[in-house]
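Residues determine shape. Take a concrete instance:
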Amino acid sequence: MLSSLRYNTPMLSFSEARNLVIERAAAHSGSRPAHKRPVTESLGYVLAQEIRTDRDYPPFDRSTRDGYACHAAELHPGAWLKLVGEIKAGDTVSEHLGPSACVQIMTGAAVRLSKSGLGCPDWPNCTRSSLVAANTRGDPMFHTWIEFGNRTLTSVIMVVAVAVLIAAWQFRPGGRRRKDLVWLAAAQPIGVLAQALFGGIVVLTKLNPTWVSVHFLVSIAAVAAAVLLYVRCTEGTGPARSLVRIDQRLMARGLVVLVAVMLAAGTVVTGTGPLAGAANTPRYHLRLGGVTQLHADIGWALGMLAAVLALSLQATGAPRKAARLGWLMFFLVGAQGAIGYAQYFSGLPAGLVWVHVSDSVLIWIVALRLMFATRDRGPVTEAPADSGSAREETAAGSAPIAGTSAVQQPTPA
């Protein structure tokens, strides 16, 4: 970053500049009467009272170029200075500024929620010289530890994912290994590796919004694989038997599709708006109001479909589990809408954004669970059909289920 900066006016101290402003303002005020005028017609007038807004402006932290750091002795009329760098918010600079040079000063630089951003500016190492969290110029150690903690947690999740794969390999209900469970379990460490890979791309591309969106959506896909694994571990391998009407199953599948679209739209909103990162962070070149409205419209459609499905399941006497998940889905979507509007009108406070993201993941999990609850594949293990002794043991040693009868079967010779 090299450019030239020329000063043709002498520098004033802060007190001199303040006194000059006060003197000129007093010369234009005096005892003149106050008038109300539109802002567009107020040029040349002096405010008669303070102007206050009903909310903070800007409504979010943003980077602003406040000025330049330079040697005051070199600021004589006609002086030329070379711009040699910039100082962002939170930077600690120990280098001395050379002669005929200046540094641009920026304040209020924001990054995602915790403002950790690229606390680890390199990958796979945290910094160019350290694998673990280390102090980097321009970022407080707090930010670095947030990013490094996220990477460390990924390692812990990988250990758990490998343990799940081993357990699925050893799980043999009825004496046979379930290939479907092994493949779903294998998807867990593969998903973690994919997360690490895309996370590295996000770091190396300096928070490119496209890769950030892919990074989040890969996480959502990994969550879906984990939910499917959990469900398949509790059921057999028989053909799916519908427990509800066909229209209700279609609505349940539609919820999953709508939630996936809403999550994708949410990443676009984030990549377009202030939470994409600091002012110099790449963003989608879209109109923020437009993508936000699209995200809200998808949310309204999701809420209406969730309400219809919940009422339908309740009215038709669907299985208790499906009906319960239907109502849970409805209330989670309603809460998500309330949180979304609250954060929008309150200037995107970090706490509400955390809740909004967490609730979106819960909605995704519940939508998947609800879809799977509308069908049944039988129990995990079933007694062999030709085992007379097994049937005898079941009839003699177990109480009959209500509404059925148990008959003693003769033991073949």
